[in-house]
Each structure stands twice: as structure tokens, then as C-alpha cells.
Write a structure and sequence with these properties.
The complex is a heterodimer of chains A (about 240) and B (about 325). With about 240 residues, chain A is an alpha/beta fold. Chain A contains 7 helices and 8 strands, in the order βαααββαββαβαβαβ. In chain A, strands 1, 2, 3, 4, 5, 6, 7 and 8 form an 8-stranded mixed beta sheet that branches. In chain A, helix 2 packs parallel to helix 7 and helix 4 packs parallel to helix 5 (about 130-140). The mean pLDDT of chain A is about 90. Chain B is of the alpha+beta class. In chain B, helix 2 packs antiparallel against helix 3 (about 140-160) and helix 3 crosses helix 4 (about 165-175). Chain B is globular and about 70 Å long. Classes of the chains: A alpha/beta (about 240), B alpha+beta (about 325). The interface of A and B includes residues 3, 43, 71, 115 and 212 of A.
Chain lengths: ~240, ~325
């Protein structure tokens, strides 16, 4: 049915599936999309507008769920499994082409696409050199339709590295980063981060109904256990 | 012996007539929000979900009166979240001019519905006062906006009961876009002069000859990669005053002012929403029907909606 002019708010969940993510961490990561879906099922206002995609990455990156309506009755949510190492270059490159392709198609279909947001979850350091992954990240964020990037780090992920992925990192619409507190259980931290993602999807989706554009985050006091919020400048 | 009286409500009882059959309007995919429940805003019990009007406006001369319809309805998002309607409309007229206004309160400022009411009502009053001594083409719009910004700030301080609040802090609590139209009630060479001023993303349209929608401003988000719902709004003032638009409407035309709750789905006017509104609004509908049409369901379009329409030639 005709939907010309419909407003869309795209979210991409990008999950590290290197070998170190195996076990309880991956089980928690596999609960992210079901949690988002359950929240959307409660909110007909949001589910008309929010679209979710899932990309996983290790040495390569794969689109595990193309950008879609999570409440589509024909949909089966993918289950992530671990493989190989940790390539940020693969993740950023695929994200870049995927976002560009999706926006082009959605615009051709007559949608009004709001700025995409990326939830980037990793538990370790990239295998590439800094200049390599930074070049791929610059390509991802160097276009007019750049995404807002919100990194989530658990376990061995380095705050200093992930701070480089907060985008935009300055200005009125700067994004945030979420890190597991030292000594916490990483799987539990991922559960908490999933709740942060759900909360952000809901408040951001609501904000575009209110004449505002932007990604909103839960208050620092409402983060749940074992996770802290940071701006990029916390690491500079 | 008295005659048997027919039972109440049977065919024999002709003391009343009329019927209200209503199927909610849907345009294209209505979306899940079409069936979302509506809740009141428990902080603002006295702000109605929907307001509407319908009447004739008469000029000085022998010209037939103009027909006006207006409706402001709470969007499905505000209904679902239990939030007050932040749109408003107002009008004033003498025997020469009709002044029409709509305003759209900025969503993230919680008292914006007060800004919308003040801007529309006082704006119409201020403009009509100027028109007593000034032709519409010479209206001092910069002055009007400055007066309204001050009125919004005063209203904000009053509502918040903090007289020393800075303008910046007031604007975080209440802000609204405004759109004004001044319509000459007497035609000049067969057409009615119209003067428009928009500050923010509300929009004016003319349904030419009942056939096609002619936007009176640049179409929002036209040609951009990433859509934005950000807009300018009172009490913040523009660095450069907005430029008024001068046009005319013929007897077969209709002038429409809308908030972005309608402007966004209307797009450039050539799509399904444009066809739907043109078909129903070629001639003035009943006021209740007009409000129901303003409230049409369409996927993802859940903002408050306001429309004020004027038909010059059918009264």
C-alpha cells in the first residue's frame, strides 16, 4: 500500500562475533533483537517508524538481518555464532555500503529517512593497525548521510579505542559510549547494554514525533548495573 | 378512547431525523498507530483533544461570504503517550480582512501549547490592529514577530511562576512555529489578495480550481539525503526576517494553512494525501467532517494536525 512520505528511523546493531565472544556473552548478544522487538510490540507509534538491521563481524562482516520491521510476522530472528578474529575494517566497510544502499532504496521508495544510528558492540581490540581501521571509520562517517555511532565495550575492549568511534564526538548532537565496569560479568553487562539500546530506540523514536531530530539516551542514573556512560572527550 | 401512541424510536415517531455514520479516514497504509489507544494528559485536563469551527465571513460589499473551516486535532503519538495537543489556530476579521493563524508547539518543550495559543491569538489581534492603518503589503512582520516573542516569554514566566527566567530558559519550556494569512474579503479584479508569513515549518497551500495543490513555500525536506524535523520557532527570533508571500485566490480556489502534521504527509501535494484532501475539500465539508478528515490515519504520520481553510467563492 502507498506509504510515500513515511518517516523512518533506522538502527543498525553491529555485534562482534570473534571467538572471544563465545558462551554467555554471545547468548546475551543474541537477546538484543528479541528485547528490541518486545519493546516495539508494546508501542504502535514507534513500530510504524523504527527499522532495525543486524550486522555481525569477525574477520569478515555479514548482514545477518537486513534493515526491517521487527514486528513483520514473517520474520525469523537470526542467531549469531562465533567465527574467527576481530576486523573493525570489515565491520565499517560493510556498514558503509549497507547504509548507503538502504538509504538510496528507501528514498527511491518515497520514505523520509532520518539519520541512522549504529550500536556497535565489541569485546576486544581490532586486529588491524590504527590507521587501517581509522581510515575505514572515516569513510563511514565522512558522508552527508553519516550515521550516529554509539560504541558499547565489554571485557577486553579498550575505552581509548572505542572513544574514537563515538560519532559525532563533539557539538550539540554528540553521541555517547557505554563501557562495562571493571570486574563485572561481561554477559550481564551486555544484558544491561541491550536495555540501554532499547531505551534509546524508544526515546529517539519518540523524539522524531516531537519535532526533534536526534538520538536520545537514558539518564546516567538509569543505566542499570555494571555499565558506565562516557563522552568521547572523557578519553582525550 | 385515545389513539395508540407509537413506541419511541419507531418509524411512527417523526420528531427527529439525522444520522451519524462514521468510518475513520485512512489514506494508504494506516499503520499500527491507527488503532493505538488514546489517553488524557493528566497535567492539562482542560486542553481539548480536538477543536473545530465552521462559519461564514462577510465583507463590506456584495461579494458572497467566504466559508471557513478549521480543526486542530491531537496526533496519535500525543494520544498514545497521554500528552496535550500542542497545535493551535485562531482568527480575527473585520469587514475588510480575515486574519488566520496556526501555530505548532515544539514537542520537546513541555509548555509549548501555551506558546501556540498566545502566538495565534495575540498574532491575529496584533495584525488586525495594524491593518486598521496599514495595507497588508506594508505590514511590519518583524514587529509582529518581536511582539509575539515577548508575549511568549511573558506567558512562559507566568506559567512557570518565575518572573526572572531568562528568555533562553523560557524557550526551553515553550516554543512554537507560526503561520499567518491575511485575506482580503473584497476581491480585486475578481481575485482576493492573500498575504502570508511563515516562521517555522507550518505551510500554506492553494487548491487551484479544486484541482491541484500549489505550495506557497519551499517543500520541507525536498531533495535532502537525511530528513530532519528541526525547525525555527518563537520566542527565538530569526536573524533575517522571513519574507512574506503575496498571492491571490480566485472564487474557485481554496486557501489552506496547515501544521507539519498535515504538511509532511502532503509532501509536494501530488501524492495520495493530496488527492484525498483535494477530493474532500473541493467544496467545504461539514465542520465535523472536516475535523475527521484532518484526523486521517497514515502510517508514521502521528503528529498533531491543524488546518484552517477558506473558500472564497462558495458561500
Amino acid at each position: 500500500m502507498d506509504a510515500t512520505g513515511a518517516k523512518l528511523l533506522p538502527f543498525y546493531v553491529v555485534v562482534d562475533v570473534s571467538y572471544s565472544m563465545s558462551g554467555k556473552k554471545l547468548a546475551s548478544a543474541n537477546q538484543i533483537l528479541p528485547r528490541v522487538r518486545d519493546a516495539l510490540a508494546e508501542n504502535p507509534i514507534l513500530s510504524d517508524k523504527v527499522r532495525i538491521g543486524l550486522i555481525d563481524f569477525s574477520s569478515d562482516a555479514q548482514v545477518r538481518l537486513p534493515l526491517c520491521d521487527l514486528l513483520d510476522p514473517g520474520l525469523t530472528l537470526p542467531r549469531l555464532s562465533v567465527r574467527d578474529g576481530t576486523s573493525y575494517v570489515a565491520a565499517f566497510s560493510l556498514l558503509h555500503t549497507e547504509i548507503a544502499t538502504n538509504i538510496k532504496q528507501l528514498k527511491a521508495d518515497g520514505f523520509q529517512v532520518h539519520r541512522p544510528a549504529v550500536f556497535f558492540l565489541s569485546d576486544g581490540e581490532p586486529n588491524e593497525t590504527d590507521p587501517e581501521w581509522q581510515a575505514a571509520f572515516a569513510t563511514l562517517t565522512g558522508v552527508a548521510a553519516y550515521p550516529n555511532v554509539i560504541p558499547f565495550g565489554v571485557d577486553k575492549a579498550d575505552g581509548a579505542t572505542l572513544a574514537r568511534l563515538v560519532h559525532p564526538s563533539t557539538g550539540a548532537k554528540q553521541m555517547r559510549m557505554y563501557l562495562m565496569e571493571n570486574g563485572q560479568d561481561p554477559a550481564q553487562a551486555i544484558n544491561t547494554m541491550a536495555e540501554i539500546m532499547v531505551s534509546s530506540v524508544i526515546s529517539s523514536g519518540r523524539s522524531i514525533s516531537q519535532g526533534e531530530t536526534g538520538i536520545l539516551f537514558p539518564d546516567k542514573d538509569d543505566l542499570g548495573q555494571g555499565v558506565t556512560a562516557h563522552t568521547a572527550s572523557d578519553w582525550v | 378512547m385515545t389513539a395508540q401512541r407509537p413506541a419511541l424510536g419507531t418509524a411512527g415517531d417523526q420528531d427527529w431525523r439525522g444520522e451519524f455514520r462514521f468510518t475513520p479516514y485512512q489514506v494508504g497504509d494506516p499503520g499500527r498507530a491507527a488503532n493505538a489507544p488514546a489517553y488524557p494528559d493528566t497535567e492539562f485536563w482542560d486542553c481539548p483533544d480536538t477543536v473545530l469551527d465552521g462559519f461564514l465571513l462577510r465583507g463590506d460589499g456584495a461579494t458572497p461570504p467566504m466559508v471557513l473551516r478549521a480543526a486542530s486535532v491531537r496526533g496519535r503519538a500525543h494520544r498514545f503517550y497521554g500528552k496535550v495537543r500542542q497545535d493551535a489556530y485562531a482568527f480575527r476579521a473585520d469587514r475588510r480582512y480575515a486574519v488566520l493563524a496556526i501555530a505548532d508547539g515544539i514537542g520537546n518543550a513541555p509548555l509549548s501549547h501555551f506558546a501556540a495559543l498566545v502566538a495565534t491569538r495575540h498574532g491575529c489581534y496584533e495584525i488586525l490592529k495594524q491593518l486598521a492603518t496599514t495595507p497588508p503589503s506594508a505590514l511590519n512582520w518583524t514587529w509582529v514577530l518581536r511582539v509575539l516573542a515577548a508575549k511568549v516569554v511573558t506567558e512562559g514566566r507566568r506559567q512557570l511562576a518565575t518572573p526572572d527566567l531568562t528568555e533562553h530558559d523560557v524557550a526551553a519550556q515553550l516554543a512554537a512555529t507560526v503561520l499567518f494569512a491575511v485575506v482580503g474579503l473584497e476581491p480585486v479584479d475578481g481575485c482576493h489578495p492573500v498575504h502570508l508569513l511563515a516562521y517555522g515549518d507550518s505551510s500554506a497551500w492553494i487548491l487551484r480550481g479544486g484541482q491541484h495543490w500549489e505550495p506557497q513555500q519551499a517543500v520541507k525536506n525536498d531533495g535532502v539525503d537525511i530528513a530532519s524535523s528541526a525547525t525555527v520557532a518563537l520566542p527565538n527570533l530569526p536573524p533575517h526576517p522571513p519574507v512574506p508571500v503575496h498571492t491571490t485566490i480566485a472564487p474557485a480556489d481554496m486557501l489552506l494553512l496547515v501544521s507539519d502534521g498535515i504538511g509532511d504527509p502532503l509532501g509536494n501535494g501530488t501524492g495520495t494525501v493530496g488527492a484525498f484532501l483535494a477530493q474532500h475539500w473541493r467544496r467545504p465539508p461539514e465542520p465535523l467532517a472536516f475535523a475527521a478528515q484532518v484526523d486521517f490515519a497514515r502510517k508514521s504520520h502521528d503528529d498533531d494536525r491543524t488546518a484552517v481553510a477558506i473558500w472564497p467563492g462558495v458561500g
